[in-house]
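Please review the protein record below. Let me know how this chain folds according to its tokens.
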Amino acid sequence: MSEANITVVQEAFMRFSEGDLPGFLNLCADDIEWDHRGPNSPLDKLYKGKEGVAEFLGTLSTTQEVLEFEPREYFSNGDRVVTLGRFHFKVIETGNEWASDFAMAYTLKDGLICHWRGIFDMTAESIAYQS
């Protein structure tokens, strides 16, 4: 099951990169929790359900421009998948750029993503929103 879960996460990254919101949401469980809590930014909260994930992705796409998004390694153990990589964004309103290495932890159930938590430099993201 672990390899199948990695494939689901890889497909989610592909859908995100292509801007395919419906395809991305089809990989999510109805009761998904998307945890982006951290320092102050328009994104920082716990999103619940597919509607919450759509809200997160909508806010991200209207407030930040993706300059680089590169998942590099995938690890799995049972229903958990961790992805290591790097991303680089520009906050549209301020023009400030920020970048960080990341670890993203996914939990899957019945082949769908039911929980996500990103670990990265959220302080850099928060500062980039400041004028």
Q: What stands out?
A: The mean pLDDT is 96. The helical segments are 2-18, 21-25, 49-63, 122-128. The radius of gyration is 14 Å. The chain is about 35% helix and 45% strand.
